[in-house]
Amino acid sequence: xxxxxxxxxxxxxxxxxxxxxxxxxxxxxxxxxxxxxxxxxxxxxxxxxxxxxxxxxxxxxxxxxxxxxxxxxxxxxxxxxxxxxxxxxxxxxxxxxxxxxxxxxxxxxxxxxxxxxxxxxxxxxxxxxxxxxxxxxxxxxxxxxxxxxxxxxxxxxxxxxxxxxxxxxxxxxxxxxxxxxxxxxxxxxxxxxxxxxxxxxxxxxxxxxxxxxxxxxxxxxxxxxxxxxxxxxxxxxxxxxxxxxxxxxxxxxxxxxxxxxxxxxxxxxxxxxxxxxxxxxxxxxxxxxxxxxxxxxxxxxxxxxxxxxxxxxxxxxxxxxxxxxxxxxxxxxxxxxxxxxxxxxxxxxxxxxxxxxxxxxxxxxxxxxxxxxxxxxxxxxxxxxxxxxxxxxxxxxxxxxxxxxxxxxxxxxxxxxxxxxxxxxxxxxxxxxxxxxxxxxxxxxxxxx
Length: 449
Ligand SMILES: O=C[C@H](O)[C@H](O)COP(=O)(O)O
Ligand SMILES: C=C(OP(=O)(O)O)C(=O)O
Fold this sequence. Notes:
Mn(2+) binds at residues 74, 356, 398, 428. Phosphoenolpyruvate binds at residues 113, 270-271, 293, 324. One of its GO terms (molecular function) is 3-deoxy-7-phosphoheptulonate synthase activity. Keywords: Amino-acid biosynthesis, Aromatic amino acid biosynthesis, Cadmium, Cobalt, Manganese, Transferase. This protein has 449 residues and is an alpha/beta fold. It has a single domain, classed as TIM Barrel. It is 38% helix and 14% strand. It is built from twelve helices and 14 strands. It has an eight-stranded parallel β-sheet, with helices on both faces. It has a two-stranded antiparallel ribbon with strand order 3-4. A two-stranded antiparallel sheet has the order 6-7. α4 packs across α6. The longest helix is centred in the N-terminal third of the chain and has 22 residues, at 83-104. It is globular and about 65 Å long. Erythose-4-phosphate binds next to loops.
């Protein structure tokens, strides 16, 4: 993308006078201004044309012709920008995508919670441990996770580190997805380390053999399309820190429109989606595909107003509603939203985040989620859409490629007592690789049904 020299911040400033929830309390705004001035001069991380392409793919999701698989860490961390970590996450997403594409026979749009997911909205501004109260950890882009007064001070320089960590991650993601690793002929290779140790790995292996047979058959018929040799993969994150997102907003010289070039797709979270707030105004000003999280208190009027602000032209692919109601509420709360939105003629993509409405604290103090609740929320999501004749457009999950013990249940049955073994998340509990694959198989069955 060619970038117009005109200052993007002065253009994308409609949000600046509005209240912005969940922003860091920086001790020195002068330093923040220096950092954002630097960020404004940095090259884009993604290109406007790629964002347009993803909007096109999301339009297919909204029309019921494709399925979104959006997943990755709850919170990325600067010290985890390594080839092994990134490859493990990608491998998990590629395996899930192979399962969904083959078993559900639907094109899968692949979007990572990756290369920018460094900022966390928090329920409470402070955290107390053993009588000591400090500001909450808000993600590596804001402060440090260590429980010391020094680490918890918001530091604007972390925004620079976020940019560089995102750039390094994206570079590797592009290498993996286009440089041969994501070639469909590698379906077995993605599973090699996993097949002997996990039931879902074995189930996957059987499916990979079928894919192999299908590929060999097609090759024998003379068909070996380029689509089999690389993967279209996009990056997304929550657009939480508006100083960062605005500093990475550029004018696209082709169209004169603004794009947030920090990621292909950005979403606005449940805690920052106030209709008269800065986040929605910022999202309205950019042309990227936008997601908005909708929790159980969302009213149909709010949903319609969000459409009015973010997708006034009713363009399929522009707006994705990511619902996160909780397994016990999805069947009650979702129908009214889907009915009103559909009646208004808006073609949003409906996507299920079965993670954020199902968190609880185990007796050990670990924040966790039950795999069965995650699954049940997805089931409820499919049931509602089936009953209304609308399209269950995808899933949005927090996952990792590592064998962590953060969520309970799944085929390899992690118990509450196991949580301490590998509890590594910087914020919320993620599905491990085996649980992620289990979920993909079960979602594929639901989709086909
Ligand atoms: O990932 C989502 C939120 O940032 C997270 O659930 C907030 O966690 P908290 O309720 O512990 O602040
Ligand atoms: C904060 C998040 O979710 P929500 O806004 O739905 O709570 C998230 O997805 O990281």
